C-alpha cells in the first residue's frame, strides 16, 4: 500500500475527545439506570434510559471508525507492517495488562460487596480471589470490564495487518472510493447493520467476551476497517460532508422511533416490534456517524492549543475513569444524597480523578507505557568541554 503520510485530521481528533467525554457521562449514567453495572445508586430511574439511548447506538462504533483512521496514519509512518503491529501491540497490550491487573480489580470488588454479599476487604480480595481465573459470585475473574474495547482494538489491528499483507490495497482503495463516494455511503453499511440488529440479533446484547461476541465483531470490525480506508479517501470524506444533513435527520428519526417505543404505555416492547426497533437502532447508529464525520471534516478540522493535550489524555482517562466512577459511587451510597447531587459529584470526581491520574502518570517515565502514553525520548548527554 502507499507509504504517503496521512495528514492529521483535527476534526476526527475532536470527535475522539468528545466521544470519550460522552463515555464518562454515559458510565456515570450507568449508576442510575436499571441496566446491570458494578455500582448502583438508590436513586435509579427508568427515565434515565432515554438520554442514554441518544448515544448508545453510535458512540462505540464511532470510536472504532476513528481508531481505524488513526491506524492508517500510524501504518504509513511505521517501518513496515511488522513494525506497525509491534508498535500497536506495545501501545495496547501493556496498558491492557496493567489495567486488568491493577485498575479494574476495585470495580469487581465493589460489585461483589454490594450485589453478591462478599465480606472480604479489598486487599484480601485482590491477593486471594481476583486472580483465580474462574468465577466468584457469578463474576469472571480477573475481569476486562470496560477494557474490552482495548482488547478488541488489538484483535482488529491483527486482522488489519493480515489484510494489508494479503490484499492488493491500491485496487481495494479504488473500489472503496468508487462505492462509498455516492449514496452507497449510507445504503450499504446501513443494510449490513439492519441485518445485524433487525434480523440476525434482534434486541441482542454484546457480551464483551472476545470469544463469544459475534454481534459486536460483525459491527465493530467493519467500522474499524471503514475508518482505515476512509483515511486514504478524499472522495468519501467529501461524500460525508455532502450527506451530513440528510444523515443527521435520519439519525434523529431513528432515535425518535426508539423513544416512541420506550415511552409506550404498555411497557416492554412486544416481540413483533423487535425487528423494527433493531432497524431504527441501525439507522441511528450509521447515519449519526456519517453526519458527525461530515461535520468534523467541514467545520472542525482545525487545531487549537489544547487539542494535543486532550488527545494524549484520552487513553489514560479511558483506562481509569470507570474505576473512579465505581469507587466514588460506592462511597456515596451511604451518604443519603439526592440523585442530582450524586450525579454531579460523580461527574466532577471522575474528571478530577482522571486529570490527576494523567498529570501524575505522564511525568513518571516508567509509568507512561502502562497508561498508554508514548515513552519519553531519552535525554541527550553532551560531553563536558
TrEMBL record:
Acyltransferase listed as a keyword: yes
Domain Acyltransferase span(s) in chain numbering: 10-358
Keyword presence, Transferase: yes
Domain of life of the native organism: Bacteria
Keywords, in A-Z order: Acyltransferase, Membrane, Transferase, Transmembrane, Transmembrane helix
Residue ranges of the TM segments: 12-37, 49-71, 92-110, 146-167, 179-200, 220-240, 247-264, 276-296, 317-337, 343-361
Coiled-coil ranges (or none): none
Pfam families reported for this sequence: Acyl_transf_3
PANTHER family per the UniProt record, alphabetical: BLR4337 PROTEIN, GLUCANS BIOSYNTHESIS PROTEIN C
Protein name: Acyltransferase family protein
